[in-house]
């Protein structure tokens, strides 16, 4: 599997599909055993085996032989590789974003997730995002909220700084008539130009991807 210049592959995985072969490491199996609920165990098993299978196509290595390392904030990576990747899951769906030579993050959320949109936005969004969401009609609010939430989560995951980077320190677009982009990062209006965002609705899920590279192109692939 090859990636062209500036290309991002976003793999969509239905974890309710036929059980995949087990390529997990001992550490991953330990994490799997710590899940209490059946759905959580299945989603972890399927998504992490899919990750190994997918990355093996780019790296020409056996899935079971891939060795993941973790940053200080727990983001996995493969040492001495140009391949950058990120994994996210919601309910039974997972997404795996892959690119070369650029920090990347991906997030997926079920639109059926029950949340208090305005309360969460007031707590986590920047003031401009919060005020804008308050003006959205009730029928469109969940779509606007999850557009904003997944784009912000994707950016945070791409940075790899965990919860140390506040969600209200940057601003993204999220209305249907706006371009998909980061408007501001902290007080640096130039920093946002380094990033490309993508957003896609798939069935009843919302997917967002953030890449620290200008003019990235995005291709969605079914696993």
Automatic annotation (TrEMBL):
Residues 104-210 form the 4'-phosphopantetheinyl transferase domain. Residues 20-98 form the 4'-phosphopantetheinyl transferase N-terminal domain. Its cofactor is Mg(2+). Coiled coil: none annotated. One of its GO terms (molecular function) is transferase activity. Keywords: Magnesium, Metal-binding, Transferase. The keyword Magnesium applies. It comes from the Bacteria. Belongs to the P-Pant transferase superfamily. Gsp/Sfp/HetI/AcpT family. This is 4'-phosphopantetheinyl transferase superfamily protein.
């Amino acid at each position: 599997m090859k990636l062209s210049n500036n290309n991002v592959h976003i793999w969509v995985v239905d974890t309710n599909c036929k059980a995949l072969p087990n390529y997990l490491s001992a550490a991953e199996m330990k994490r799997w055993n710590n899940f209490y609920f059946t759905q959580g165990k299945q989603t972890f098993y399927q998504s992490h085996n899919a990750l190994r299978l997918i990355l093996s196509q780019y790296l020409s290595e056996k899935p079971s032989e891939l060795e993941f390392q973790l940053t200080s904030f727990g983001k996995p990576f493969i040492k001495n590789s140009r391949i950058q990747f990120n994994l996210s899951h919601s309910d039974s769906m997972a997404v795996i974003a892959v690119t070369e030579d650029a920090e990347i993050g991906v997030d997926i959320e079920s639109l059926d997730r029950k949340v208090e949109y305005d309360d969460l936005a007031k707590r986590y969004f920047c003031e401009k995002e919060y005020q804008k969401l308050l003006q959205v009609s009730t029928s469109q609010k969940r779509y606007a909220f999850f557009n904003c939430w997944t784009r912000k989560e994707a950016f945070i995951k791409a940075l790899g700084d965990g919860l140390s980077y506040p969600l209200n320190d940057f601003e993204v677009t999220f209305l249907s008539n706006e371009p998909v982009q980061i408007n501001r990062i902290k007080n640096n209006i130039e920093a946002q130009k380094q990033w490309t965002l993508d957003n896609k609705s798939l069935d009843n899920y919302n997917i967002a991807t953030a890449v620290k590279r200008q003019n990235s192109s995005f291709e969605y692939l079914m696993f």
